[in-house]
Amino acid sequence: MDLFEQQNVNLFRAINDLGKQYTYLNPVFEFIAEYMVYFLCLSVIMFWFSRGNNKNRIMIISAGIAFVLAEIIGKLAGLFHSNNQPFATLSNVNKLIEHSIDNSFPSDHTILFFAFCFSFWLFGKRFGFVWIILASLVAFSRIWVGVHYPADVIVGGGIGIIAAFITYLIVPRIDFIKQLLKVYEKGERYILSSGKRSRDH
């Protein structure tokens, strides 16, 4: 085991072993690691359907494209380096959630959260720093529950941030996306007005 791998394992142990010492925090980090993704999905839906805010929809489109781009980069990174989850290779891991054994590098959960949350911050959402804290907590929780090494989440977070920054610079300037969004919104207004007319009758 080289120095980098040893440091990666040592940092994993330092974080994961906290769950053995502070057992009352385990349910909190289990929830964050497994279920915070649903909160993110709900937030995306709420931003998308917020009334009269076209910027929110551009933000969601940009974040979605950032996630796809980040996943592609992540899969390419996984071709050059791979490692199984800590619970599959180390002894006495505090494993708190179920997870299949595969290449855990980089962390998909961390990629997802940083691609979206960093996009929210870049687009100037109110309390944008809270989204960065949320993404960081998710990354930390994946180590706490025993399914990722620190390197998995650090690289995943970095990929998500880079992808979010690239799409933030490019996507809002693409006329095709703006035109497509106008077509969608026109259709949305038509459907809503049709539904209102049918209820009135």
Brief overview, please?
Helices cover about 75% and strands about 0% of the residues. It has helices spanning about 5-15, 20, 25-50, 55-80, 85-90, 110-120, 130-145, 150-170, 175-200.
Strand content: under 5%
CATH first level = Mainly Alpha
What does the overall shape look like? elongated
What is the tally of beta strands? 0
Residues in helices, as a percent range: over 70%
Oligomer: single chain
Our Rg estimate from Cα atoms comes to 20 Å
- Report the structural category: mainly alpha
Number of helices: 9
- The count of domains is 1
As for the CATH topology, it is: Vanadium-containing Chloroperoxidase, domain 1
Q: Any low-confidence stretches, pLDDT <50, length ≥5? A: none
- The biggest beta sheet, please? none
**Any idea what the CATH architecture is?**
Up-down Bundle
Q: How far apart, in Å, are the first and last alpha carbons?
A: 74 Å
Mean pLDDT across residues: 91
Q: What order do the helices and strands follow? A: HHHHHHHHH
Protein name: Undecaprenyl-diphosphatase
GO molecular function: undecaprenyl-diphosphatase activity
Pfam family, one: PAP2
Domain Phosphatidic acid phosphatase type 2/haloperoxidase: 60-168
